Amino acid sequence: MTGKKQKIDEEFNTSDVKNFLKRNPDFLIENPELFSVLTPPNRTDGEGVVDFQKMMIEKIKSNLEDLQYSQGHLIDTSRNNLTTQVQVHEAVLRLIEIDDIEHIGHIVTQDWADMLHIDVIRICFEQDHPIAPPTFKEIALLPEGCVNEYLGKDDIIQLRGDVDVSEDIFGPAKSLVKAEALIKIPETEYNPPGILAFGSRDADMFYPGQGTELLRFLGKTFHKCMIRWLKLKN
User: Fold this and answer.
1) Domain extent at residue 64
2) The overall pTM is greater than 0.85
């Protein structure tokens, strides 16, 4: 009796589904995600005959899965980019709040590193130059000509991953750093050429072709804040 009741219920449910689909012929079009769980009928009529309809449906299902993955990846990337943007804005606000140039080096090399989740940040300026480098203690001194050697005359920023970095730039942290972002600090009447260097132990943190807008923004903000305080000091 139980088996008979189950069969009646299945027939009743199947009938309901059929009637519902007849009344709503666009249901599958409006709910394409169902294609990923439905099994299309095999229309092969004989040996050696290819069922192109089934192949097309399977292709649609595969494309739908790829699209869903891409959408998820895009959402995750957008969230990560938004998080990074918020961190950069907070770092900039922290910098413009300083009340003494002596604090600028600590904020960039220590506070920024914590806020931006960067392993090493270094402020480098060339020495043996007509314009003396700033004197705050976090400055790393480079031989004359190093900035153009590492960045070229025209490059403003360079990103490299899985790289053997320069000890001149990263000092004792050289062995830790596997990826770098080097931002040029242009020469002015207040400072010699320099480099704001970001280093990460993650070899995939920085790579050529990566977006550089936020890094450029950080570099320009640091340079402008530093010049403002150098003008006041002089």
Assistant:
1) 18-97
2) no
